[in-house]
Specification:
Layout lengths: L2 H26 L3 E6 L7 H16 L4 E6 L7 H10 L4 E3 L2 H4 L18 H8 L2 H14 L2 E4 L4 E7 L14 E4 L3 H9 L3 E4 L5 H7 L4 E5 H6 L8 E10 L3 E3 L1 H6 L2 H35 L4 E3 L4 H17 L2 H12 L3
Parallel strand pairs: 1-2, 1-3, 6-7, 6-8, 9-11
Antiparallel strand pairs: 3-10, 4-10, 5-8, 5-9
Helix pairs in contact: 2-11, 7-12
């Protein structure tokens, strides 16, 4: 073959290879839709995190990941979402940790009452070795990906019957509790009458008086307008937690490496943004509930509640086995 012929052949081969490469990149960059759901209204705390994640995921993926926001339990209820993620019938969903633990019991380490001393402790745990261990293990055990813990928050109690100034004042109050063993045991230890109800049943139960109240994230009490039916707000910071965003393995497997990196980066940065929002708003919302919402606020002395909570912690650490207890110890050590 002479040099002219050989050069032409090499040029043709190069053009062919370039064409193949472009075809592969075009195929890899096909748009992947992610339906991201949650149970509360669009303009809620979850909605703030979801909107930021949507913005960043689409930006970092150059538009090849198209996030569709599905609020208000459009694609699943929070109680059913984890199983749907495992089955791959839901792409992504916000699920509070107490609704994860029926499917993955180790998550209850984050549900234990007063397991966190303050907001700094929460962030140190979620952003440190314990948080990474939870991410890795839940994916290995269930196939579900924890994209971000989101911002920290606290659950506040509310009821329609009376103010609560002491632990004794909880006696006889029928308070809605998620179907979570730790939370049921905690409310029993506090002397209340816990009523396990799915989230979807809670608003109606409160409106009809089937329950006297319950506890929810501070922002959720405002978003769901629970202040219209329960005028007594009790600040204890007894349960602390996050706004976890999960994704199915089926969805993650649709992504090429660049898209996956974009989604993970977007989740991390959206979680950091949401943390700033949450930390700033907690007392602001409590003030709004007491003024615009017309709720009376009490802040009982926490000593008796903490003592009761420590018994619950010890009970579950003993019952759930060595791995659970080791995580509890790591969380407590992170406060030092």
């Amino acid at each position: 073959m002479d040099w002219g012929t050989r050069g032409a052949a090499l040029a043709a081969a190069a053009v062919f290879a370039l064409g193949m490469g472009l075809a592969e990149r075009t195929q890899a960059a096909d748009t992947v839709v992610m339906n991201l759901g949650w149970a509360t209204p669009l303009e809620s705390d979850y909605g703030i995190l979801a909107a930021k994640f949507e913005e960043l995921a689409e930006k970092y993926s150059n538009g090849t990941v198209d996030v569709k926001l599905r609020c208000c339990a459009q694609i699943s209820t929070e109680d059913d979402a984890f199983k749907a993620l495992q089955l791959g019938t839901v792409d992504g969903y916000f699920i509070s940790q107490n609704n994860v633990s029926p499917h993955w019991p180790l998550m209850d380490v984050f549900v234990l009452p007063y397991i966190f001393q303050n907001t700094d402790h929460i962030l140190k745990v979620s952003g440190g070795p314990v948080g990474q261990k939870i991410r890795d293990k839940i994916q290995a055990d269930t196939g579900v990906h924890l994209l971000t813990f989101g911002g920290p928050g606290y659950r506040d109690m509310f009821n329609s019957r009376r103010p609560v100034n002491t632990i004794e004042d909880l006696a006889g109050l029928k308070l809605r509790v998620p179907k979570n063993q730790v939370m049921l045991a905690t409310f029993e230890a506090f002397g209340a009458e816990p009523v396990p109800l799915a989230w979807s049943e809670t608003p109606t139960a409160l409106q009809t008086g089937t329950i006297d109240g319950g506890d929810n994230g501070t922002s959720v009490i405002r978003e769901m307008k629970f202040f219209e039916f329960a005028k007594h707000l009790i600040i204890l910071d007894h349960f602390a937690g996050f706004a976890p965003v999960f994704a199915s393995n089926r969805f993650m497997n649709k992504l090429d490496e660049d898209q996956k990196a974009a989604v993970l980066r977007a989740a991390q940065e959206a979680g950091a943004y949401h943390t700033q929002v949450k930390v700033a708003e907690i007392e602001e919302i409590r003030t709004w509930l007491s003024t615009e919402g017309g709720m009376s606020i009490t802040r009982p002395e926490r000593g008796p509640f903490i003592a009761a909570a420590q018994e619950v912690q010890q009970q579950f650490a003993a019952d759930r086995g060595d791995e659970f207890k080791a995580l509890v110890d790591e969380i407590q050590a992170a406060a030092d």
